[in-house]
Amino acid sequence: MNPISFILGAPIKAQRQPQRLRAEPEELVQFKAYYEEHIEPLTRKFENHRVASLKALRGRLYTSLGILLGLALLILVFSLSGYLDIPWVFFIVLCLPFGWWSYRPLKRYKRDVKQEVFPKIFRYFGPDFIFSTSHNMSLTQLKRSKLLPGYDNAKFDDYVQGTYKGVEIAINELCLTKQVKREKSTETETVFRGVMVQLSSHKRFKGHTVVVKNRGGLVNFLSSSFKRLNRVKLEDPRFEKQFDVFSSDQIEARYLLTLGFMERLQSLANLFSGKIQCAFYEDKLLIMLQSGDNRFELGSIFNGATFEYEFSQINREMKQLFAMIEVLKLDQNIGF
Amino acid sequence: MEGLLLGLGLVVIITYLWYVSLIKKRNAVREALSGIDVQLKKRANLVPNILKIAQKFMDHEKSLLTEITALRTQVTAGYDLNDADAIKEHLGLAEQLNNKMGQLMVSVENYPELKSDKTMVQAMTTYSEVEEHISAARRFYNAAVSELNNAVEIFPGSIIASMAKVKVMPFYEADEASKTPIDASDYLK
């Protein structure tokens, strides 16, 4: 089924046929076993929920369409006879509550999946893994990283927390927006959209060190500081070309950013098209990954509620994040 | 006349700014040097503990332990911060101590009892942590020295430096022994 056939009235039936679980060949057996034990038992209940939501959505869409068409007809008749002169913008505004009302069953279904199924999916990565849409990182703590750009509004989305190979992980989607005044209007501009990854560190540190995108030669010539942190010039010219490092402690910055770590951070930056910045502060490493992708989301509503796609997709995304820990060797008790 | 005065004023300002920058660079080197000393002091405080544990087990390494003790005393002794030769000697001794401690750590491998001793394991972990800090301090110091030496040796900075008595500073170099390439055949006999 697709959106057009759905609107045109194609029958909505429960889909029990499985899709395909996707994982690396070496973990596929374990992956399938986990799915069958923990996720598959939920699929029948949610498939019924999905079908009911789609039916409710279509019913409400038809009702809304009928009411709106009736209203449009009335407005047209009265406009033509000169009794009414309503601008068409009013009609568009009228569509909004109907749209909201029609979408509600779907929204409820998605919320229920995230509340009941996703936590089970995330427990695959470890017994202490939690997934939540209501939890979020402390914005004050994030602000203290000195990485956040100027913003007016912050909106958190999905939150994941757990431990991988002894490293405590917290992941939170974040969108930062700013009001920008144009000539005639004020527009909302997104200044950051992506994922914040907070990792515990086995190295202890007192100072504050940030690795930011290269600001350019001219800016660095004119200013050798960044939010009251001093510039740290490192030995690796390739790293210096890509990043600028600022710290409150010159020695500690070099203790944290060893030559090996710099190389690993560069390979990580290549994986994420260079849109990566990080901060070592308060005994944590905070990685800021800029990305337009909305992570940990539900697949198409028109597919059966087997959650195989979601499980495979989340597994792939989490493996990418775990690779970061391995690339940065945060799990090993050696110099970074 | 006005042009001449203007030119002269400009030269004075530029010379003064150059002088300021040189002094800042020299102070950065001194700051980096004190950073190294803090770490060397940490290591010096750690060495007696390691030696105390090692002495119980390492009967055949007496001369090495004595050498380490002597070097530790020399490294902790004061030196003239304004004397480049004294700094070079101080850093050289620190590197020799590092080298000897490295030898000691390798020798520990031959004493399984010592290797598994809890206090020794903890001391060695702390030692390697301090070594990482020393290495970081050395990188900071060498970066600061490199900037200062460039400023002092390149004309016209060299003239201002000689007037201000700012001199080139020695790098903290790795010990010659650790720079020598290893011949694998020696170990494969």
UniProtKB/TrEMBL annotation, chain A:
The keyword Transmembrane applies. It comes from the Bacteria. The keyword Transmembrane helix applies. The chain crosses the membrane at residues 61-80, 86-103. InterPro entries: DUF3137 (IPR021484). Keywords: Membrane, Transmembrane, Transmembrane helix. This is DUF3137 domain-containing protein. The lineage of its organism: Bacteria, Pseudomonadati, Pseudomonadota, Gammaproteobacteria, Alteromonadales.
TrEMBL record, chain B:
It comes from the Bacteria. InterPro entries: LemA-like_dom_sf (IPR023353), MamQ_LemA (IPR007156). Its main location: membrane. GO terms for cellular component: membrane. It is a single-pass membrane protein. It is found in: Membrane. SUPFAM superfamilies: LemA-like. Keywords: Membrane, Transmembrane, Transmembrane helix. Gene3D superfamilies: LemA-like domain. The chain crosses the membrane at residues 6-23. It holds the Pfam family LemA. Belongs to the LemA family. This is LemA family protein.
